[in-house]
């Protein structure tokens, strides 16, 4: 049985842990709200680009781009987003499980000989993907790109993916990330980035706000200019959603750890009080026994 001193030490340790998890929860919550605000700021830019593309699609004009040309799929690239830091529960594990399912679906759909290149984003995801052993699967670690990358880093990464697609190094490129819904709800999503297909615009409701326009210069030139901007906005949105989802998962993990610490602290405090009461009772009995003698 533990002594009073040992219990007191354990109570102090658990109390410290409770304070730490509480502070970490507050920090993660602030970072999550910052990412949410970034998502809101990105929304008008992306909506405007999608509106332009929507009007082009409804116009009576011919337009095309190398980024929209479908191919026979022999080489696939999949960008999978995780976190650089831990203490976010099963966040990375859940994404990795979906990645394994997605790799299997590629084999089932395109054959066992299809080459797959995985671009892991985030130190934890790099470590997880590195354990995969498949002669037809390649690991491409992008220097200078992690889960916290913003701005020019995202732009350079998107341009690299476009270049690899245009050069034929990949016939299709997908992105796998955790879609942010709320602090308690994130769901893994795998979307096709390249080639850009019309379903991509339909899923985002692009045609909903379209109006008649006169295009200057021609529609095809505008389409070829705007399409890379659309890909940039999509990828920027994915990076931001990944950060928001990671912090949301960390908030929930810290909340769970904090609740467990409180519960353990209450149990230890009760055990301490019982042991202390037992010690006092024993001392009183010894005193009474001495007086009787």
Spatial strand arrangement across the major sheet: 3-2-1-4-5
User: Describe the biggest sheet?
Assistant: 5 strands, mixed
Helix content: 55-70%
Alpha-carbon Rg, integer = 28 Å
* CATH topology call: Pyruvate Kinase, Chain: A, domain 1
CATH architecture: 3-Layer(aba) Sandwich
Mean pLDDT: 86
Which secondary-structure class do the elements indicate?
Answer: alpha/beta
H/E series, N to C?
HEHEHEHEEHH
Topology, number of strands: 5
Please, could you describe this protein's structure?
It is a single chain. The chain is α/β, with parallel strands linked by helices. It has helices at residues 4-58, 91-110, 123-129, 152-166, 198-203, 219-292; strands at 75-81, 115-121, 137-139, 172-182, 185-194. The chain has a 5-stranded mixed β-sheet with strand order 3-2-1-4-5, sandwiched between helices. Helix 1 (4-58) packs antiparallel against helix 6 and helix 4 (152-166) packs across helix 6. The protein is elongated and about 110 Å long.
Task: Name some characteristics of this structure.
5 strands; 6 helices; 60% helix; Pyruvate Kinase, Chain: A, domain 1; alpha/beta; 5-stranded mixed sheet; 293 residues; elongated; single chain
């Amino acid at each position: 049985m533990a002594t009073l001193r040992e219990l007191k030490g354990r109570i102090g340790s658990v109390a410290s842990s409770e304070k730490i998890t509480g502070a970490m929860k507050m920090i993660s919550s602030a970072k999550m709200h910052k990412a949410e605000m970034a998502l809101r700021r990105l929304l008008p830019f992306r909506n405007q680009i999608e509106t332009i593309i929507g009007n082009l699609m409804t116009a009576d004009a011919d337009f095309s781009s190398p980024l929209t040309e479908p191919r026979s799929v022999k080489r696939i690239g999949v960008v999978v987003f995780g976190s650089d830091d831990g203490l976010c529960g099963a966040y990375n594990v859940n994404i990795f499980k979906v990645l394994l399912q997605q790799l299997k679906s590629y084999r089932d759909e395109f054959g066992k000989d299809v080459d797959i290149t995985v671009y892991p984003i985030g130190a934890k995801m790099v470590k997880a993907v590195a354990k995969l052993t498949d002669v037809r699967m390649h690991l491409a670690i992008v220097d200078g790109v992690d889960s916290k990358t913003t701005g020019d880093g995202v732009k350079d990464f998107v341009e690299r993916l476009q270049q690899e697609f245009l050069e034929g190094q990949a016939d299709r490129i997908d992105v796998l990330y955790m879609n942010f819904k709320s602090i308690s709800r994130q769901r893994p999503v795998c979307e096709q980035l390249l080639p850009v297909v019309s379903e991509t615009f339909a899923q985002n409701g692009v045609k909903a706000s379209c109006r008649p326009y006169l295009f200057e210069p021609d529609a095809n030139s505008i389409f070829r200019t705007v399409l890379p901007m659309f890909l940039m906005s999509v990828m920027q949105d994915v990076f931001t959603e990944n950060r928001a989802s990671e912090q949301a998962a960390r908030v929930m993990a810290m909340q769970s750890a904090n609740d467990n610490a409180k519960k353990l602290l209450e149990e230890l405090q009760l055990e301490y009080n019982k042991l202390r009461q037992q010690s006092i009772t024993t001392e009183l009995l010894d005193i009474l026994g001495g007086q009787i003698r």
